[in-house]
Amino acid sequence: MLPGLVLEFYEGKNVMEYTKRENSDETKLRLVGEIALGLKYLHQQWPPIIHGDLRGANVLIDSKGHAVVADYGLALIIDSSEFTSIKTAGTCRWTAPEIMDPPANGDIPLPQFTVKSDIFSYAMTVFEIFAGEQPFNDKKSDGNVIFAILDGSRPVLPESIESRANLANLVTQSWSQNADQRPNARQICRRLGLTTWYGDWMDTLRGYLPV
Predict the structure, then answer these.
(1) Is residue 199 helix, strand or coil?
(2) Any residues with CB less than 8 A from the CB of 187 and at least 6 apart, and which?
(3) Are 130 and 160 in contact (CB under 8 A)?
(4) Where is the Protein kinase domain (predicted)?
């Protein structure tokens, strides 16, 4: 039997629609923290679950105003002994460079989604939430966006991120061209102050993921 995911139905807005009304930096900080918690929950499953299409449109807001990582259209369950490949990438503005231009390897002919490619998408989503616009909004062609990402270009951080050194450093590290230089979701949560001395917030995490 193939593994599957059962998702709760949400009628609320996505995070981009929600932050048009609730647009304080404090609210946005809380929401990006909740997204990180959800991502950490996915990645620490065994085998890890890779979202594959994380972006603002795929983060819903529940009735209490909390972020819920949703829309697992490209979600992958990664076996510990081998990579899982997929033919279709997520929206390019949030997609890691190694997915759009994977290294040549005769044994792995298709792009490989990993926890680190999810982290790149998370960084672009954080930018999207704080900037109030999609990454590379000045580029109308997806081809130009792809070339920019492969060339190492990144969106200019808005002042609301730039003025917070910890957040700015976190975003720039998370969208690093080198996947090995990106932090994992657990490290992101720790740097956002979302862990405690007695361990992870497992009960809290369950409230942020409809699984």
Answers:
(1) strand
(2) none
(3) yes
(4) 1-198
**CA-closest candidate to residue 172, choices 120, 106, 102:** 120
Active-site entry in 25, 53, 79, 107: 53
Given this model, what pLDDT does residue 91 score? 85
pLDDT in tens, 144-195: 999 999 999 999 999 999 999 999 999 999 999 999 999 999 999 999 998 6
**Between vectors from CA 79 to CA 78 and to CA 81, what angle results, nearest 5°?**
135
Q: Is the dihedral of CA 163, 165, 170, 175 positive or negative?
A: positive
Reduced 3-state DSSP string for 12-79: CCEHHHHHHHCCCHHHHHHHHHHHHHHHHHHHCCCCCEECCCCCHHHEEECCCCCEEECCCCCCEECC
Q: Could you report the per-residue pLDDT of 44-81, keeping only the tens digit for each?
A: 998 899 999 999 999 999 999 999 999 765 555 554 44
53 is catalytic: yes
Q: pTM for the whole thing? A: 0.83
pLDDT at 197: 43
pLDDT score, position 146? 95
